[in-house]
Input
Amino acid sequence: MPDNHRSYLEHTPENNQIWAESVGPSVDRLVAYILKHNPEKKALMILSSLRNVSTKHTKDELETATQTLLEISTNPTIPVLKGILDRRNKRKSKDNEQIIHHENHGFTRGAKYLGGKSK
Output
């Protein structure tokens, strides 16, 4: 059986719960919520998209974003989780740009140019 067919056989609520436990407690709570509040077929589709999101981020990033999602939302969804992750990545890259920006600039003219004493 091809690998992509086998992955559909392994895409069960139990396997998703095991995967969620390996990521962290917040992801585990989110998966349990999704399985509880949706029909099985829809829940598996939602969990498939969650696992797709997890391939693009580290476990720590996913765990902290999921924790934030569970704190701010009474009805957590994957699109909101993606938004949280995107905002965190933008903020992180903006902070890195500011650090680089400040390191590239400094005093380019010395004391002699400004009329002071040079060493």
Observations:
- The two ends are 77 Å apart (CA to CA).
